[in-house]
Every structure is written in structure tokens, then in C-alpha cells.
Amino acid sequence: MFHYTIETPKSIDEAIQSLEKNLKEEKFGVQWQFNVQETLENKGFELENPFTILEVCNPKEAQSVLSANQLIGYFLPCKIVVYNDKHGKTKIGMPRPTVLIQMVEDESIQEVAADIEKRLIACIEKSR
């Protein structure tokens, strides 16, 4: 699967707060928080369910992978989404870095992608 997604009983705000705390422990910072529903409403469009995208980055890892292959910049920063599905359940998910990195066809950074994926999944799981 290209993504990793879990369900949580938390509200979107609670899930985001928990994620920010857990990401910080893994030395990832939230660079940007994009409330898609609010932005669309401001433009005159309706999105039925809340949907927030967090762009997260670990500066050391970003420097390492960009130094190895600049094409990785197409996938930075990493994205984690927090949303309510059509049944009102809160979900936390992300595209898997290991799957995205395959598009670059550079075996030398697969191990780094796997480590980042493992750490981000751990943050998501702790935020459950």
C-alpha cells in the first residue's frame, strides 16, 4: 500500500496536538499546517469533512537525502494528514516514504527512507 493510516478516537485537534508532541520527540518539526476545509470554504467551496495536512521535516535527514539526490526534494517535506472520514471517524495517515522513494530509483537512499518511515509510523501510533 502507498499509505499508512490509522483510526483514533481523538478529535482532529487532539490528534494534531499529540502528533506535534510525538514528532518533536523524533526531531521532526511541523513546518506548515494546512486546514483544507477552511481554505476551500474561504474560496467559496465546501468540503464536508475536516481535513488537515501537516508538512513535517527533520532538518538533518532532509540535508542528508538532498545531498545524496536532489530529486528527493520533490517529496519534501513529509506529509501527515489528519481528517474525519465520511463516517465521522478521525484518521491519521501518511504516504509511505519507502514507496515514494522508489520513484527516484536510487537504492542508496532506500535505507534512509525506511528509517524515516518507521519513525513517522511510530509517531502516528503514539498519537492514536
From TrEMBL:
Source lineage: Bacteria, Bacillati, Bacillota, Bacilli, Bacillales
Residues covered by the DUF302 domain: 34-97
Annotated protein name in UniProt: DUF302 domain-containing protein
Stored Pfam families: DUF302
Domain of life: Bacteria
